[in-house]
Amino acid sequence: MRIAIIGSKGYDSMEYNLWDACLHIGHEAAIFDLHDYLFTKNKYGIKADELMRKYSDYYDQKIFRKIAQKVIDWQPELVICVYRFIHPTLISTIKTETKSRIIHINPDAITTFEYQQVFMSDYDAWFTKDPYIVNFMRKNMKLNAILYYEAFNQRIHKKPNKPKQDAESEANIDVMTYGTIYPYRSKMLKHILDANIKLSIYGIRPNRFYDHSLDRAFKNKYIMGCEKAALLYGAKIVFNQMHYAEIESVNCRFFEANGCGAFQLVDYRPILHKLLPINPELVSFKGIDEGIDKIKYYLKHPQERYELSGKIHRYTIERFSYDHLIQYILKSIS
């Protein structure tokens, strides 16, 4: 099958991982990245494009018609849209000129719906990871909304081939987290530091509203690929804080960490009962105080960490790779 993916070509993005999975299981796939079709492609042009698309519907349509024509010329059988800001004219243009099925996959929380373009577009199916949004879309808008779970790429997020205790000795990390350090995350992480817990924070320091009390833990380093996998596996505990807009869902970080064989403590969500082979209460917290208590407990009980992370890793690789996800998507729309 020829599958066009509209989204970012960035390494380890959802679009990249969907593309990689398509190729791995025998499909032909191509990514159509907005940045390849801008009229000016330097950093100033990218910023100008964002502003123009935001304030000019004419310009917004012009850009997405350009992308639509490239997709039409490629003649895909399926189009997977991942950007949340795709203008509805792209979908209508492709549908007018081809017989391609077009679906949307939303990997983020409800705060990313922008102008709600996704609801105004005539997709054949809307895949979203939050049961709350699935029900809202089905019941209130009668859209063909389908629940999916995010995934990890086992060809990128590889568990190191060594015992976890050896990896922990090499990494020398008690607790780690990574990603964008939003203000809500800063507040939680400060409480961990104040509890005299050795914390390592990976990612890029934000330009605004950064709490410099985190400097002692901040590595100011973006991690990805094999390096990320080695650190996740080598850390004694990976601390995963859900965005407050993850109402009934979990983030991609949850699957990455589990896919790498990490021992992870995560914000509790009822959906964890479907995503874990154990009682979620063992590896989740309902508030920062409980999170700190569990960090202290598991730092003192390494054998429990090894057993739990091993069970979760095996369960994850059997169910939640991107290869599984693309097969689930194709089956759902067949």
Task: Explain what you see.
It comes from Prevotella illustrans. Pfam families: Glyco_trans_1_2. Residues 186-330 form the Spore protein YkvP/CgeB glycosyl transferase-like domain. This is Glycosyltransferase. The chain is α/β, with parallel strands linked by helices. The protein folds into two domains: 2-148, 3-Layer(aba) Sandwich (Rossmann fold), CATH 3.40.50.2000; 164-319, Glycogen Phosphorylase B (Rossmann fold, 3-Layer(aba) Sandwich), CATH 3.40.50. 45% of the residues lie in helices and 13% in strands. The protein has a six-stranded parallel β-sheet, with helices on both faces. A five-stranded parallel β-sheet has the order 8-7-9-10-11, with helices on both faces. β5, α6 and β6 (145-147) form a beta-alpha-beta unit. α2 packs across α3, α3 packs parallel to α4 (88-97) and α7 (164-171) packs across α9 (225-234).
Name the CATH homologous superfamily of the largest domain.
Glycogen Phosphorylase B
Q: Using the 3D structure, state the CATH architecture of the largest domain.
A: 3-Layer(aba) Sandwich
Rounded mean pLDDT is 95
Distance between the termini: 12 Å
SS strand fraction: 5-15%
Low-confidence stretches: none
Summing up helix and strand content along with how strands pair, one would put the structural category as alpha/beta
- CATH topology-level name of the largest domain: Rossmann fold
Q: What would CATH call the class of the largest domain?
A: Alpha Beta
User: What proportion of the residues is helical, as a percent range?
Assistant: 40-55%
Tally of separate helices: 14
Order of helices and strands: EHEHHEHEHEHEHEHEHEHEHEHHH
Query: How is the main sheet built?
Result: 6 strands, parallel
Say what oligomer this is.
single chain
Q: How many strands in all?
A: 11
Integer tally of domains:
2
Strand order of the biggest β-sheet:
2-1-3-4-5-6
Domain Spore protein YkvP/CgeB glycosyl transferase-like: 186-330
Protein name: Glycosyltransferase
InterPro entries: YkvP/CgeB_Glyco_trans-like
Organism: Prevotella illustrans
